[in-house]
Amino acid sequence: MGKKKKGGILPYIALKALYLVANILPERPALKMGEMFGGLIYSVSKGLRRRAEANLVRALANEKNPEELKAILRTMYRNLGLSFIEFLRYRKVDQDYLKDHIEFEGLEHIERGLEKGRGVILLTAHFGNWELLSMTLAVRGFPLSAVVRPIDNPLVDDFVHRIREYHGNCIIEKKNALRRLLQVLKTNGIATVLLDQRASPSEGVMVDFFNIPAPTHRSIAGVARHTRSPVLPIFIHRTDTSRHRIICQPPVELVITDNRERDIIENTRRFTLAIEQMIRKYPHEWFWFHSRWERRKKKNGKR
Hints:
Blueprint: H1 2-5, H2 10-24, H3 27-44, H4 46-60, H5 66-88, H6 95-101, E1 102-105, H7 108-115, E2 120-124, H8 130-140, E3 145-148, H9 154-165, E4 170-173, H10 177-186, E5 190-194, E6 204-209, E7 212-217, H11 219-227, E8 231-238, E9 244-248, H12 260-281
Parallel strand pairs: 1-9, 2-5, 2-8, 3-4, 3-5
Antiparallel strand pairs: 6-7, 8-9
Helix pairs in contact: 2-3, 3-5, 4-5, 11-12
């Protein structure tokens, strides 16, 4: 019973209220509300903001001055506010929406990958409006299976889960996801993984991220090595307030030798580099809140 009540009903009620308002309003004022929401969160989330600031300094201080870093942070919050409203307006995402709001680049790489019959792994990150990315791919004819971590509040998790699967995508819970991923690829499906979060010592290997060693999930490299499925970096980039470009890159060249562990480390490094390169190009679109390099200390002092 305790788990079912975790987080309480108030966040769910607030989410439903925002959902109703976001869908009652026309697009332009709804997105304006999203921008204001992003600005509000910037003002009140001091702890999160300090963490994001620290990560930005750690990754980009040698390349950006303090004013540039501050601008990146503010734009990130704006993008998150816009993305949240777009997510809540998920029923608007149809073929007409794609024509008016989405530009696609490189989708032929998915088609060619599927022609091989071993499935496709789409490699992405918490970048741009990553939730809209999966929606638009499904509407375009590429339904996918995405690995996600359940939200702690079960009421909110159920609401978000229904949105994520509305267009025909399938959600795979992160716990025990490996078997499901292998099944998706075995049936020539599309599996999507976000590889930009910190891994635990048992799940990760150390590879550089912005020239700093970071524990990174090893499972995708292991799956790709086993299945020989092409791994395609794919990202969604906001080009205007309501417009996006989806960029699907050619497959990452996999290293496959008789040394499995070395292959996993090298391929994980290559996957991480693809993500880093996109973040460097559009730093304001990445989710800088992640404790990517070390675990945060909890209030009781434990890690």
